[in-house]
Amino acid sequence: MNKKTKQEIYDASKIQVLKGLEAVRRRPAMYIGDVSVRGLHHLVNEVVDNSIDEALAGFCSEINVTIKKEGSVTVEDDGRGIPVDIHPEQNRSALEVVMTMLHAGGKFDKKSYKVSGGLHGVGISVVNALSEWLVVEVARDGIVYRQKYHIGVPEAPVKKVGRRKNPGTRVTFMPDGEIFKKRNFSFEILSERLRELAFLNADLKITIQDEISGKSEKFRYKGGLIAFIDYLDQSHTTITRKPVYLAGEKEAIPVEIAFSYNDSYNESIYSYVNNIHTIEGGTHLVGFKAALTRSLNNFASKNKLLKNGDNTLSGDDVREGLTAVISIKVTEPQFEGQTKTRLGNSEVKGIVETIVNEQLAKYLEQNTAVGKRIIEKCKVAARSREAARKARELTRRKSALENESLPGKLADCSWGEAHKTELFIVEGDSAGGSAKQGRDRRFQAILPLRGKILNVEKARLDKMLSNEEIRTMVAALGTGIGREEFQVDRIRYHKIIIMTDADVDGSHIRTLLLTFFFRHMRPVIEQGFLYIAQPPLYRAARGNEEYYVYDDEGLEKIKSRFKSQNKNFAVQRYKGLGEMNPGQLWKTTMDPENRTLLQITIEEAFEADHVFSMLMGDDVEQRRKFIEENARYVRNLDV
Ligand code: 0RA
After folding, report:
1. Which of 39, 159, 162, 311 has the most CB atoms within 10 Å of its CB?
2. Which of the residues 505, 526, 546, 591 is marked catalytic?
């Protein structure tokens, strides 16, 4: 029998490694989603996820993230350290295998809740392949091992470089400038995810330090999900003094839930599978909702809290003012949907349902007073929903008589087919005027909105419908609104384009609109109908040569070109759309041949909604500042 020599084995696996790395570098988006801001930060999340796995296995209590002065990032944990022994089949250190082979993690599966497919769980080797350089240091059995790589290729075998008592892993990497156009890490983006992870993993200590800005944060929540709910509710008054906490495990699926009721009319449920935010929900969420409705109705009828005139409480009734977090772990999750964030595993629904039914009944038995307050709130919700339904029916009958007409403010287009037409929702009458003159009236419709639309956070649907701007918008869209009426198929345009000024007010209006669509017309986003226009920020001109510039980087480029040619030039900064004449607005922002549109995904709308819920404090100045700092949610998109 032919026996391969060690050298042959080594060379063969080396070729395999190079092929793998090449695949990642050729199509990075397949592994990390995209190569923009999100993909860049995904690299850090990927490394952190490995440390989180070690924490889930019970061996790691602290994770430290540092943005270094030079622009690299270090992720350090106090876990067992990546194994360093010689891998029998690969004939080299296990550490090298983990760092260089795609999906090598599985070889050492710790039977934790690793994610198969999707964006997370692609393995640390992907980060390595997309890094100009990466250094890993492992402390195990009192010895420190080290290896360095350039775009994923080891510089030399793993070396012993020192001694240290406490085990752990430290990964430092510099993203590759050839893959990522922008390489600067955002303290805010990283902090947000790390805080979330600290909430989801009770008592885990996570720190982040930014050596560039000097900012730092420490996260550690003994209360876990309970602390998460308190955080989400911080700007609201709750009727459940302490969040309700339920936990259980069935068929090796642990389920953890915390919830509360507050005085708003919104439902905010955050669901997670293996620490991944399932924005599109899924079977765990369905199970929770079903059990919540059932348990509360059972409690209400047992305690005779529903009078003869009261109907049973609907799902909408029991979720008004609800803040909930549900976190489950599944060994082989199936993710579906537009952003692969909907859990598909069908067995999970029943498991969550059973656990919630059992645990919640127990809780309500022991906390009758809280239960009664919740039911009272649900009953108020049910009554106002009924009142709203009657009012809607009345307006519907009235408008049927009046032959439902389009709002006067809408400058409609002449073509009738939705898939060929666009609606620009424009901030302010003056920009609306320019847009009307500049558009191609065959397929572009313009709807100017005056000032701010109603704050949808504070209003119930019935009150919202009394707001003229909202009614006008709903009428122009043609979809109707409200659970019973909204129909995305009736939409009159397949591109809804939000066009606002590039200032703080503009970004506020944009956030409001995104929140509105996210909460009340989610299918419009899911179908990919919602966009944001990108007006230029500057116009640089010299004689009759002119350039429109869309960001500060572009401005610097144009400036240096003009300067190098020793020419006089003028730069105009556009503060609002109104500063452009109709021709300019068409050319730069509306003409399908030249413009860039940013398509809104559910993820982005969710972020806007999240930002929005967070700024419910009444301090206007603080709110303004918050919006400014978070404008990135609706900026850093690409189509
Ligand atoms: C495989 C096996 C073991 C630990 C790890 C991987 C591990 C990976 C990373 C990545 C970042 N930090 C990490 N910490 C641990 C278990 C090894 C054993 O049995 O001791």
Report:
1. 39
2. 505
